Amino acid sequence: MEGEDEWFGEANLVGYLKLDKLAIQLSYATSICTLDSELILLEFDSTISNPTNFQRSRSRLTRIFSSAFGASNHHGSIRLDRENDRCYQALVNYVTGTLVKVLLRAVEGQV
Question: Is the pLDDT of residue 7 over 90?
Fold first, then answer.
């Protein structure tokens, strides 16, 4: 991934815990975007909305952020102590690049 090596840590418990925090942030952002998209579709063109996606995202976000579970699930902040935004952007770039490679190979019939 792009960025300084010390941002991500080594391939040990500490490094994997950093990666876990970034993955949690990405997962939350994806659920929020899915919920937002489905709400927009429901409001403006309900014929193409997917109620299952809406319910799944809503249930997941409610479970994560409810007062009964919320912060206690993660024992502190899910943000990294240093360079969180840069690390997050690097992870998104890495995942996007990998997805594009896989899709291009599938289109070319190499998968």
Answer: no
